[in-house]
């Protein structure tokens, strides 16, 4: 390639960059380019302005460069600038260029220091420049300002990495000389993506601001932190020079004098300074483009061929072709089937890597939600203080002889109201899991982005509508609980089912591997044990064969607390301890139990909750606590508080049980089943009349035996076959098992209905009638009604 061809390489890449920017697409061709990286106030802007010979970049405190600036320098006889977003407009005043950069930045990012990865394309024509293209990136910052998000440092880092991680990108790492090179943000980022230093060019700025007697000669001679492409030192204008409008040509002359006269740098003066850096970058970029051009050409030709093939397919496209509609309907059908399988757990392709959407929802219902209920359980001292106030306020100036029912009802209702938060959170978690499942199912529609987008939109909108209905119903359920306190419930204090209690205490609630952290450390390393949790004890064994029991810990007076994950540890830890300050195991006051994941920790805590081991509660201190303590001075009040405390405990356990049972049913009825019903009509539309005829005329096609039944089979032979089943012993056992399960479950339903019916009628009928009557009673005493009554009384007399 001749000199003329070499000169055309940089403009060629410029045209490619402009083409991608014009169509709003990111450049995935990995074009050869130079990215300028540096910390705030490292001197990046001054280096670029020295190249152009003009002041044209915004200046100020904080982040000034908030969008990537693709700066294309083109050698020309005339001097002007052009923006890609201002086609046909030439800027001859470089102050206007600065204002346009600020305005275009604010248009996309706002005025309060936000950032964006959408680049600004600026082309500068000048006789003072060499053909060169640079990408000026935002300066690395640590502290957010204005309306910047807290993670602004990571956002800027990610944006920089998008450019410099490409193999064809040269990195211009700008570092001020008055900073320790080991702390250079620019060199650190460059080393992350270019550990051998093959693509990095170091620039050391502010050499004139170093302390007397110090220099960076070892760095500039490429001996301290060597880079294959070396370092170049430059001297920028100071802030005083900029404010004093010092001419850039004068600054370049001063830079030249500095290197010529400095004892540490005079021997390398010809390889230092802005003019040399510009020549070096022009040469490096040209050579880099030449080296990468064959691979770039090959990739472009491959993509062009692929696009030609795709274009040929579109030439034959008939929008009215029925096969296109059939394919779209089949895709929607597969989406619906996939969604059902993920939620209902059907299908033969079972995921063995992670939980499906349905399994996660089941976990929310039976582990996360019960745990959320107990997490908000009332504080003991605070509760007793509230009961004491309620009793005193109900008695007023009188001395009460009996424990007032109203105090019990007031406290219970206050506790029921607190259930609103966990219940609504449960709905939120299920809704989010449904939306995640929808997004996972639509991943298979990637080749049809519009179809995918519309499918997601329709189903997600429907889910959001159902979310509102479900939350309304949840709040209604709590209102129903508040409307009538059912103290005749068989589970309220006084009722005891001894058989169930005995079975419960023997039931194994959970088994699994756990590591005992605090004991293992003393013995020289973490060791796993096989744990078994029942309703009365926590035991651990040497292994899962459960032959060698290490210890059995009774659950009396135990509680759970969270332990912060260690910095170096990959395990997630929780602890169990005795509330009466006793040792739980040998000389240990608490046991630290570790799992591999946070999900396992949550699952174990939910299981411990079922066994009656609750999370640790904070105590009330200060004045309120002192008042609570003072109540113990009245023995009669203490007895009344204790009585109501036990009644509240008993009744709230009924409410918790009822809410835990109703929440999954409510969400299943109002949300999940409705979503599945919403998707089914879309699937069924696939079987239009035309498609039904197709299946009828081609009986060889596969059909589901569960859908098509023989029409004539009603009684007779079929009934006789049914009768013969009773002769099968295995079937008999299955029938008996299911019969017992039905009995057990229906007893729960009957109990729930008996409890809910009076509450529902009280809330929806009786309380509403009372509310309706009250205004009528009040209106009776209006002026008009009073006169009417007096007249009638007069005539009666």
From TrEMBL:
Cellular component, GO, one term: plasma membrane
The entry's keywords: Cytoplasm, Endocytosis, GTP-binding, Hydrolase, Microtubule, Motor protein, Nucleotide-binding
Every Dynamin-type G domain range: 28-294
Keyword Chaperone: no
Primary location: cytoplasm
Keyword Hydrolase: yes
EC numbers for this chain: 3.6.5.5
Signal peptide, first to last residue: none
Positions of the PH domain: 507-613
Localization per record: Cytoplasm
Pfam family, one: Dynamin_N
Biological processes annotated in GO: receptor internalization; synaptic vesicle budding from presynaptic endocytic zone membrane
One Gene Ontology MF term: GTPase activity
GED domain ranges (all copies): 735-797
InterPro entries: Dynamin (IPR022812), Dynamin_GTPase (IPR001401), Dynamin_GTPase_CS (IPR019762), Dynamin_N (IPR045063), Dynamin_stalk (IPR000375), G_DYNAMIN_dom (IPR030381), GED (IPR003130), GED_dom (IPR020850)
Family to which this protein belongs: Belongs to the TRAFAC class dynamin-like GTPase superfamily. Dynamin/Fzo/YdjA family.
Protein name in the entry: dynamin GTPase
């Amino acid at each position: 390639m001749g000199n003329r061809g070499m000169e055309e390489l940089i403009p060629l890449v410029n045209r490619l960059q402009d083409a991608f920017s014009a169509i709003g697409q990111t450049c995935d061709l990995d074009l050869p380019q130079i990215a300028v990286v540096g910390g705030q106030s490292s001197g990046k802007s001054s280096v670029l302005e020295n190249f152009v010979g003009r002041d044209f970049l915004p200046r100020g405190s904080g982040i000034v460069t908030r969008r990537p600036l693709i700066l294309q320098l083109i050698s020309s006889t005339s001097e002007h600038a052009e923006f890609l977003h201002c086609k046909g407009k030439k800027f001859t005043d470089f102050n206007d260029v600065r204002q346009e950069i600020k305005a275009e930045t604010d248009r996309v990012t706002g005025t309060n220091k936000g950032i964006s990865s959408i680049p600004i394309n600026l082309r500068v024509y000048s006789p003072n420049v060499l053909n060169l293209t640079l990408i000026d990136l935002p300066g690395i910052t640590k502290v957010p300002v204005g309306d910047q998000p807290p993670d602004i440092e990571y956002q800027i880092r990610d944006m920089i990495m998008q450019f410099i991680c490409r193999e064809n990108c040269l990195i211009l790492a700008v570092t001020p000389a008055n900073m320790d090179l080991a702390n250079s943000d620019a060199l650190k980022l460059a080393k992350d993506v270019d550990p051998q230093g093959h693509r990095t060019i170091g620039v050391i700025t502010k050499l004139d601001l170093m302390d007397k007697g110090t220099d960076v000669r070892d760095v500039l001679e490429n001996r301290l932190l060597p880079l294959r492409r070396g370092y170049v030192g430059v001297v920028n204008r100071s802030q005083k020079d900029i404010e004093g409008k010092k001419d850039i040509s004068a600054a370049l002359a001063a830079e030249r004098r500095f290197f010529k006269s400095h004892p540490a740098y005079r021997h390398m003066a010809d390889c230092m300074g802005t003019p040399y850096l510009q020549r070096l970058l022009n040469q490096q970029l040209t050579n880099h483009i030449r080296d990468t051009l064959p691979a770039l050409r090959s990739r472009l030709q491959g993509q062009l061929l692929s696009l030609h093939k795709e274009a040929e397919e579109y030439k034959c496209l008939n929008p009215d072709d029925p096969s296109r509609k059939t394919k779209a309907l089949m895709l929607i059908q597969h989406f619906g089937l996939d969604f059902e399988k993920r939620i209902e757990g059907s299908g033969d392709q079972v995921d063995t890597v992670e939980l499906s959407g349905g399994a996660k929802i089941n976990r929310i219902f039976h582990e996360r939600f019960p745990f959320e209920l107990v997490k908000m359980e009332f504080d003991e001292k605070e509760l007793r203080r509230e009961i004491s106030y309620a009793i005193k306020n109900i008695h007023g100036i009188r001395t009460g002889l009996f424990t007032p029912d109203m105090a019990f009802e007031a406290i219970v209702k206050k506790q029921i109201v607190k259930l609103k938060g966990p219940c609504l959170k449960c709905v939120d978690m299920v809704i989010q899991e449904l939306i995640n499942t929808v997004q996972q199912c639509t991943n298979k529609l990637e080749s049809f982005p519009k179809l995918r987008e519309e499918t997601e939109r329709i189903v997600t909108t429907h889910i959001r509508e159902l979310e509102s209905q479900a939350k309304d119903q949840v709040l209604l359920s709590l209102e129903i609980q508040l409307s009538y306190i059912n103290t005749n419930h068989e589970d309220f204090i006084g009722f005891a089912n001894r058989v169930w209690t005995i079975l419960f205490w023997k039931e194994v609630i959970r088994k699994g591997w756990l590591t005992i952290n605090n004991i293992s450390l003393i013995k020289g390393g973490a060791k796993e044990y096989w744990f078994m949790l029942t309703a009365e004890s926590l035991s651990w064994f040497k292994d899962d064969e459960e032959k060698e029991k290490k210890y059995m810990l009774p659950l009396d007076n135990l509680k759970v607390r969270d332990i912060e994950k260690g910095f170096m540890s990959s395990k997630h830890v929780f602890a169990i301890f005795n509330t009466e300050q006793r040792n739980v195991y040998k000389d240990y006051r608490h046991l630290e139990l570790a799992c591999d994941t946070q999900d396992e920790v949550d699952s174990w805590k939910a299981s411990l909750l079922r066994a009656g081991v609750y999370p640790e509660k904070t105590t009330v201190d200060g004045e309120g606590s002192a008042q609570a303590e003072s109540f113990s001075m009245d023995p009669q009040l203490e007895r009344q508080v204790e009585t109501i405390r036990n009644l509240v405990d008993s009744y709230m356990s009924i409410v918790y049980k009822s809410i835990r049972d109703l929440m999954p049913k409510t969400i299943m009825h109002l949300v999940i089943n409705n979503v599945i019903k919403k998707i089914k009509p879309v699937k069924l539309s696939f079987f239009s009349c035309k498609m039904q005829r197709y299946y009828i005329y081609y009986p060889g096609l596969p059909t589901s035996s569960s859908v098509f039944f023989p029409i004539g089979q009603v009684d007779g032979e079929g009934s006789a076959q049914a009768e013969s089943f009773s002769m099968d012993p295995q079937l008999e056992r299955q029938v008996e098992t299911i019969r017992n399960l039905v009995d057990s479950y229906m007893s729960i339903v009957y109990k729930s209905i008996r409890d809910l019916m009076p509450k529902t009628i009280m809330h929806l009928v009786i309380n509403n009638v009372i509310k309706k009557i009250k205004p009528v009673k009040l209106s009776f005493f209006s002026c008009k009604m009073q006169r009417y009554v007096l007249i009638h009384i007069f005539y009666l007399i």
